[in-house]
Amino acid sequence: MDPKKLYLYALDEATKIVEQVEPEQMELPTPDTEWAVHDLLRHITYELAWTADIVVSKTVAEVGDKYDGEFLSGNPVDVWKDYEAITRAAVEACDVHGTAHLSYKDTTVGEYLIEAGNDQLIHAWDLGQAIGVPVQFDEHIAEELYHYALARKVELLSSGLFAEPVEVPESASMQIKLLGILGRSEDWRG
Fold first, then answer.
1. 3-state secondary structure of 104
2. Strands 99-101 and 106-108: what pairing?
């Protein structure tokens, strides 16, 4: 799996959805049960902003409180686009063999880009579900991410960041399987 290609694909998909968020949708529920659209948008923008620093091997201490507080003031879509441009350039230029200093471990930039790309892609789906815009993953990328998540299933569950996996039929598409292993269901509204 090419980490840069994966991340930039996920970034493109997330951007397509973020650009469609309307101000009146900010309080809509999302598949992330603890977050409304505004909260989810803030989360993915925060993660996006950090990515530009992480891929150039900055430590958490070096970045400091740069992204603390409410940085979605103004037009959240414009804020996203600003960070999207900065992060895209940083990812395109980064060394995937460099070190990514995360708050919980050091890893390679390539490994981090796979994690971050997976997160952006899944949250693009979450956001799309909330605002009524379908998100269809590339089948090959969904399959690669599914196997990546499957190999880390115990680690993902123990992180506390994901809901219990959702059972899906063996005949389900790779997108549905990926969503299921990450605790998401197509009928999340119940």
1. coil
2. antiparallel
Q: What is the pLDDT of residues 49-64, one digit of tens each?
A: 999 999 999 999 999 8
- Taking domain 3-135, whether its CATH number is 1.20.120.450 is answered by yes
C-alpha distances in angstroms, 46 versus 49, 76, 142, 185? 5, 11, 24, 25
pTM: 0.92
Q: Residue 5 and residue 10: Cα distance in Å, rounded?
A: 9
Beta strands in 59-141 (DSSP E): 99-101, 106-108
Instruction: Let me know: does 184 contact 165? Beta carbons within 8 Å.
Output: no
Nearest to 16 by CA among 81, 69, 104: 81
pLDDT for position 152: 83
What whole-number distance in Å separates Cα of residue 95 and Cα of residue 108?
Answer: 9
For residues 44 and 126, is the Cβ–Cβ distance under 8 A?
no
Give me the pLDDT at residue 157, please: 67
CATH 1.20.120.450 maps onto the chain at 3-135
